[in-house]
Amino acid sequence: MKIHKVGLRFAGVSSLVLLASSFANAADPSTVKKDITMSGMDHGSMDMSGMDHSKMDMSGMDHGKMDMSGMDHGSMDMSGMDHSKMDMSGMDHGSMDMSGMDHSKMDMSDMDHGKMDMSGMQGGKAPADARSPDYSNGVPYGRYGQPMMMGDMPLWGVSVEQLGYQFDDDQINYEVDAWYGKDERRLAVRSEGSVQTKDDKKIDSLTSLAYWKPLSIFWNGEAGVAYDTKNDKAALMAGIVGTAPYFVETDARAYLYTDGQVRLDLGTAYEWRLTQRWVVRPEVGLTAFSKDDTDNGIAKGFNDFDAEVRLMYETLNRQLAPYVGVSYETALGSARGQRRQENESVDSSSLTAGVKFWF
Predict the structure, then answer these.
(1) pTM > 0.85: yes or no
(2) Which residues pair with 165 in a beta bridge?
(3) Which residues contact residue 304 at a Cβ distance below 8 angstroms, ignoring those fewer than 6 apart?
(4) Residue 188: predicted pLDDT
């Protein structure tokens, strides 16, 4: 029995020694294991809303081998955490494995990251040649060649606004526009006029070649040269074309002829859609001159007013639209008297039929 009692005392003393040494090891930072493994930790119900991280210094922490792949952050509430003064500039996240972390339900809406310094986490600036200017990263284009953005690709188009016959006047009226270039600049060709189908079959046309450029969202500018077959003269041309409020198509063009004469053409039109295919298009135009020219029947001021209403039906993806309509033309001001003296009509109206198309 004495031997047994001695053994119990020795066991008690040993237990106290082991317990003291374990507390000493826990208090010694050098004994903390560097390779922390959190893969088995369940953070699903951890409440960190009251934690104050404002003065936490993690600059010396080595996260290089931290394994968080098994951590469940699905229900972690960090809404009340203050991260405003957390210094993470010295943290090494290079080898952290978070591939298995579930952040789908983490609520960080109230976290204040306004003053978090993570400048040391980026590893510096990217090199100058990190990405090639054409975004190919050195990969060859193949047989199709270098790709192009749509805005950099030159395009072209042709629009025949009207090509119709006036029955009462026995003439064909036309208006054609063609262009080539990009959205920010184009080369435009425009021609409008009439062709007599009887007697001398005279052709009156005004054709221009111009540089086209957008001036704003709804307005474009034109500048170039023109030729008028009616008075057989060349001219410089400048104009503004666009869409006024309520989608009213508007154009104003001025022509400076070689003899100093100035011509001003004003026009406006509107497309009123009855259905997705049926369209009513009224349009009006005015022509004015800066001085008299009796040889060509021109008077100073406004000379001509014309109006037309067309009923169109759009077919073939709206690229072809046959139409019928009514047109009216009249002389204005001093031009009426000049034309009466030359036995020319001052007013005329006619039924029209034709087609509008573009490609």
Answers:
(1) no
(2) 172, 353
(3) 285, 286, 287, 329, 330, 331, 332, 335
(4) 98
